Amino acid sequence: MSSMKYILVTGGVISGVGKGVIASSFGTILKSCGIHVTSIKIDPYINIDAGTFSPYEHGEVYVLDDGGEVDLDLGNYERFLDITLHKDNNITTGKIYQTVINKERQGDYLGKTVQVIPHITDQIQEWVERVAKKSVSPGGEEPQVCIVELGGTIGDIEGMPFVEAFRQFQFRVKRDNFCCAHVSLVPQPRSTGEAKTKPTQSSVRELRGLGLSPDLIICRSESPIDIEIKKKISNFCHVEPEQVIFIPDLSSIYRVPILMESQGILEYLIDRLKLNIVKPQPRKFMQKWRDLAERVDTLRKEVNISLVGKYTKLEDSYTSVTKALQHAAIAVGYKLNLKYIEAANLEKATKLEDPIAYHEAWQQLCKSHGVIVPGGFGKRGIEGKIEASTWCRETKKPFLGICLGLQTAVIEYARNVLKKEGAHSKEIDPMTPHPVIIDMPEHHKGGMGGTMRVGKRRTVFKSNKNSILKKLYNNVDYIEERHRHRYEVNPEYIQEFEAAGLHFVGQDVDKERMEIIELADHPYYVGTQYHPEYLSRPLSPSPPFLGLILASVGKLASYLNRGCRLSPRELSDYETDDDDILINQLSVSTHGISLSDNGGLSSGSNASM
Predict the structure, then answer these.
(1) Catalytic residue among 403, 483, 522, 591
(2) How far is CA 182 from CA 8, 159, 217, 347, in A?
């Protein structure tokens, strides 16, 4: 292929229809053929990036290696395709306008009147072409196909400049190098049960009116739709029946690429984009995905994990944490039963204000096999997270604290073990007599956007510490994980914590900032200042999450004793006649754990996405 190929994914009828998973699935199918794929997400909002968003507004903020704070869909791309994206792979209206305004201030437009057309639309096209060539693979290969997801729905006023830019772009790169896939909802009202095609027809008509004709129409529905509906959409939307793809709700997102491929997506893309590839043998094609999907559907045992957070009303607020827990649970052979607990409901004040919510929250916490306290900002719910940390420490319940979760564990230990009354974080209580958590001056400049310690940083394990997490990382000397925080553990208290049994087993290589805590004489009480969830992959579960799941099901000790391997006897859901075969043999890199080539994975026994 001499030219870059582009697949534009648009959405219609409603937002949240699944464009991100569909776009990721396109990449998964092509990557299975040996094609190097990259992805771009376009968000039409005026914010420069997602860093200042409330999780309730837009879901979680996903962090990249280079410190980019981006839309959560880029997490889907990285997890599905196992690639490393850059901050420029997320385009916003704010970024585009900022670039154009800076050019105008510098006189780059030679006194011309700067307008949406051509200056904004040209900048969008130039940005896409530039970023599409940027390598996202470990080997540094230049991508061959770029999948671009346009956020929002067709017809949104915010997205108009981008639609116009791609109307021009299809002629700029020529027809054989550009394909448009439109994802639309086909509702099925319960009153009749009949699939309604009018919304899709209207959405496609509007897209055509803006100058883009969809080559593929991806129809999302709650239940499977019969062939007559496909013919109807084909007839009214001016596409061949094979260009209409149906994706009903499935048992797991891992079945989406498989279902798309079974409906002839690859053959169509090879013909439409003139891809110089030959489809692999059907028996082997996407086999690991088929194994993965099959395993997810056949898990029988459950592990109950409670997530104690402050943004629990919107599950997208913790998308990466949820996925990382799923990756680890499936690798161990368990189905994840994740319960969200509002941190504020664990606080003593709630017992007086809303006793029902208080008792229900504590009842749920007590029923869990393990507890995770994820990151967050602000005062609300902080005491509830501290209560959860105390309970896990005292009852020997497996615990994983991430970012703020580590900090609440440190605050709790200072108050209840070191007996430092009023110990707190200066973020919450600037006048605390015992500031065990303090801000980092170089990352606290008064503004909010782009001022945190963010992106990939190196953490060094202390050689004199016996660390569970170091063993889970295969005894490497250092790891590299992604961060997003503005506060850290106060180094003045480290010696006291260590003497009392709370060990800081990992630290930053440059500033000696504390990165990992572990509690002595506890099955699994771990906190990380970094966010390990961002580097978890379907076939490469994150070590801290893997440790939590293993400890929660009582398999951590045997796993470590076996040299970080699980035997068939331990995974009793899957029978084998050969006890010497070890399935789920995990090999470790500084980014996490991956299933090795000789791990003995067979159909129905894969780790997951």
Answers:
(1) 403
(2) 8, 15, 5, 47
Residue 396: what are its φ and ψ, rounded to 5°?
Answer: 60, 30
406 and 517 Cβ atoms separated by less than 8 Å = yes
Separation between Cα atoms, residue 329 and residue 11, nearest integer Å: 32
The length of the chain in residues reads 609
Nearest to 5 by CA among 378, 271, 325: 271
Q: Is the whole model's pTM more than 0.85, yes or no?
A: yes
CA dihedral 585, 588, 592, 597 (to 10 degrees): -50
State how far Cα 355 lies from the chain centre: 35
Within 427-575, where are the H helices?
Answer: 468-472, 494-499, 543-552, 556-561
Element (H, E) at 102: helix 93-105
Alpha carbon distances (Å) from 511 to 450, 457, 518: 20, 11, 20
- Pair 447, 526: CB distance under 8 Å: no
Q: Is the pLDDT confidence value at 466 over 90?
A: no
CB 288 within 8 A of CB 301: no
Instruction: Identify the weakest region by mean pLDDT among 124-133, 243-252, 286-295.
Output: 286-295
| CA angle 505–471–467, rounded 5-degree value | 25
Give 551's Cβ-side CA count (13 Å radius). 26
Tens-place pLDDT, residues 287-344: 888 888 999 999 989 999 999 998 888 888 899 999 999 999 999 999 999 999 999 9
**Catalytic residue status for 531:** yes
DSSP β-bridge partners for residue 424: 435
Residue 163's identity, in one-letter code, is: V
Q: How far apart are alpha carbons 523 and 79 in whole angstroms?
A: 29
Q: Nearest Cα to 381, choosing from 58, 55, 52, 61?
A: 55
Lookup result for tokens 């105390």: 390
| SS3 state of residue 414 | helix
Q: Is 403 a catalytic residue?
A: yes
The structural domains of the chain, ordered by start, are: 5-285 (3.40.50.300), 300-557 (3.40.50.880)
Which among 531, 564, 570, 591 is annotated as catalytic? 531
Among residues 533, 564, 570, 591, which one is catalytic? 533
Distance separating alpha carbons of residues 12 and 199, to the nearest angstrom: 8
CB atoms within 10 A of CB 569: 10
d(CA 219, CA 148): 18
Give the integer Cα–Cα distance in Å for 16 and 558. 42
How is the chain split among helix, strand and coil, in percent rounded to 5? 40, 20, 40
119 belongs to the catalytic site: no
* Cβ atoms of residues 550 and 593 within 8 Å: no
Amino acid identity of 382?
Answer: I
Cβ–Cβ under 8 Å, residues 381 and 344? yes
User: How far is it, in rounded angstroms, from Cα 46 to Cα 95?
Assistant: 8
Q: Cβ–Cβ contacts within 10 Å for residue 495, how many?
A: 9
